[in-house]
Amino acid sequence: MRPPEFWKADVEGRDRAVVLKALLTPVAWAYAAVAAQRQRTTISRHAPTPVICIGNFTVGGAGKTPIGRAIRAKLGPHAHTLSRGYGGRAIGPLRVTPDMEASEVGDEPLLHARDGPAWVARDRYAGALAAAEAGAHVIVMDDGFQNPLLAKDLCIVAVDPGYGVGNGEVFPAGPLRERLSDGLARADAIVMLHNTWSGDTPEQPQWLNAFSKPVLHASLSPAGEAPSGPLVGFAGLARPEKFFDTLEAIGADIVDVVPYPDHHPYSDDDLNWLAQMAQERHATLITTEKDAARLSPAWRARVAVLPVAARFADEGALDALLAPIQSKITAAHGQA
């Protein structure tokens, strides 16, 4: 599903859905209370290796996966990633290989598996144990910030500055997974992942004024080039417009775009319709790495892919944030 308009921070008129929001507010209070109770009463278990969690405050994507991939690259070849495997049927713990299908393990773990060892597990603690037994010196967990079962050594929260925390309300009255104050209290750092980057110092949102820990800035940068000629872009992301904006920013010749819901499972009907649209416009289909992971090999060969990577504005600040983890790795193993 696409997030409703009234979840956004600045909406007017009918999109504010005042009556609906009022009806949902008591449900949101209950949801927030249950989330807080779970954090207070669950006994977290520690893995044999350090765990870095890349999470977010809101329902839907905020750039966790590219941030996680960038951080993993700094931690050395013995860094493993751990995901729940959203959209896949595997319960795990299961080690993911790039040749697996998204229907089995989810789309994001397939991206992580291209970088090195990757795991999916509904039980995060069991997944962390499996990774450690397989030689992980550090675990980078994609999502799971609100899951208290596995203790974390470092919690980094990804935020899309264009969306922020929406209207600041807890689900279903808003996009937050828990009360913002509770999430901020557990976060060790926040990464504002901009869709494009400028040299101007970004203005800090008001909701971050009381946060005294590091706030880092990064941007999504193309890690390849779009093909020349007319293009029809499609993407099934929490906010697919970010991909379309990236295509425009690099000067791609976009003749049409088609958004889909996050983790959309593309059917042959979907893809035949997209192919017909592209043919009528004498264009090439293009999508994201994450979407391409959900395509069959035959369709993947017919669609161009624009990979992106998270580039940090201050690499030194990121290194400083990771330094205590690096020290633990060195103390235990000599090298990452």
Describe this structure in words.
The protein has 336 residues and is of the alpha/beta class. It folds into 2 domains: 51-221 and 311-333, Rossmann fold, CATH 3.40.50; 224-306, Rossmann fold (3-Layer(aba) Sandwich). The chain contains 11 helices and 13 strands. The strands form 2 sheets. A 9-stranded mixed sheet has the order 3-4-2-5-1-6-7-8-13, sandwiched between helices. The protein has a 4-stranded parallel sheet with strand order 10-9-11-12. The chain is globular and about 60 Å long.
- The portion of residues forming beta strands comes to 15-25%
Estimated structural class: alpha/beta
Order of helices and strands: HEHEEHHEHEEHEEEHEHEHHEEH
First and last CA, distance? 40 Å
Which class of the largest domain in CATH terms? Alpha Beta
The low-confidence parts are none
By DSSP (H or I, 4+ residues per run), the number of helices equals 11
CATH architecture of the largest domain: 3-Layer(aba) Sandwich
| Number of individual domains | 2
Sheet having the most strands = 9 strands, mixed
> Number of DSSP strands?
13
Task: Note the topology.
Layout: H1 18-41, E1 51-55, H2 64-75, E2 79-83, E3 94-96, H3 102-105, H4 107-115, E4 118-120, H5 124-133, E5 138-142, E6 154-159, H6 180-186, E7 189-194, E8 215-222, E9 230-236, H7 241-249, E10 253-260, H8 268-280, E11 284-287, H9 289-292, H10 297-300, E12 304-305, E13 308-312, H11 315-333
Parallel strand pairs: 1-5, 1-6, 2-4, 2-5, 6-7, 7-8, 9-10, 9-11, 11-12
Antiparallel strand pairs: 3-4, 8-13
Helix pairs in contact: 2-4
